[in-house]
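Summarise this fold before class:
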Amino acid sequence: MIDTSQFAFAKPGHRSGRVVLTGKKYSDNKRRQWEHQARCCARCPRVIVDPREAHFHHTHGRGMGGGKRDDRKGEVVCVECHDKAKTERSYDNERATVGSPETAVAR
């Protein structure tokens, strides 16, 4: 069996051409994004001293099991902002599943 963990390539059979990185390639991608952002959180003015202490936030979500994950679409954020973003996404997903007052139909 060939170890493909160090390769960056689209997930086999996926037509969208998304890229899923692992291992060192994932870490290198996160470091490049961190440097591109002037070593600051993408969502607040906090300086991130070490990219290993930050998160790579997938701006378009990852989907269940990583089905929508594309490591080209993301930003480096501090732990606090990542926790807030995850909470907001969970809330948005819950509203979409349950329905919101704006979309509820009177019975």
Notes: Residues 94-107 have pLDDT under 50 and may be disordered.
